[in-house]
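User: tokens in, sequence out, please.
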């Protein structure tokens, strides 16, 4: 897998939260294992379903370059969404945690945010579904650019998105917050702040149903 030099955002991986130990930690995430993490709302959260303050909040830390995240998105998310999110039983929060190759993941997330809040989840889902193509001989840029064009972003706007210093600094802050919370892999799922090791529909349903039944 390679990151096309034309992205011009490789320097991001040497900034703030993505340096030193943080980079070493993310380099070890190829296996996409999960760990404990903090709870509560965080700046930059993207969410679906019930409103903030809902009885049950499910948080997913994920990366658009993580194969296990793509598999979960394809195999579990449709049923989970229909059962809990579309019915407003839970608030589903998605948090970005770029994994190798980090520059590609960061570019994807930056582009998704540039596309606007209404397009954020569709863009992330399209990138996850396009992983095989993205890491093919042509590299990730043509795939990301095609997705950007699909939501109305020109090539120039795409380039501005993935090199925007303010957006990169905000991404750094989100990564640092995840690392400080103890996130050690993707996908990591929490139900009301408690990490759920079984990320299958059955495993997540058991945790969500128990939380819904409390009180």
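Assistant: Sequence out:
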């Amino acid at each position: 897998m390679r990151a096309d030099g034309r992205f011009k955002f490789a320097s991001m991986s040497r900034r703030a939260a993505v340096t030193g130990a943080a980079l070493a930690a993310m380099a070890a995430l190829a296996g996409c294992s999960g760990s404990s993490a903090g709870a509560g709302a965080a700046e930059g959260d993207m969410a679906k379903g019930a409103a903030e303050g809902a009885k049950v909040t499910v948080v997913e830390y994920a990366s658009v370059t993580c194969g296990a995240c793509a598999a979960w998105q394809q195999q579990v998310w449709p049923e989970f969404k229909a059962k809990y999110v579309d019915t407003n039983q839970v608030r589903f929060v998605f948090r970005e945690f770029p994994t190798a190759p980090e520059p590609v993941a960061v570019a994807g997330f930056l582009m998704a945010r540039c596309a606007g809040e209404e397009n954020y989840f569709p863009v992330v889902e399209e990138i996850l579904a396009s992983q095989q193509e993205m890491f093919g001989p042509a590299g990730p840029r043509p795939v990301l650019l095609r997705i950007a064009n699909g939501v109305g972003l020109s090539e120039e706007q795409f380039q501005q998105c993935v090199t925007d210093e303010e957006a990169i600094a905000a991404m750094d802050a989100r990564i640092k917050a995840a690392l400080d919370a103890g996130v050690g892999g993707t996908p990591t799922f929490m139900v009301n702040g408690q990490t759920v090791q079984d990320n299958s529909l059955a495993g997540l349903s058991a945790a969500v149903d128990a939380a819904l039944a409390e009180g």
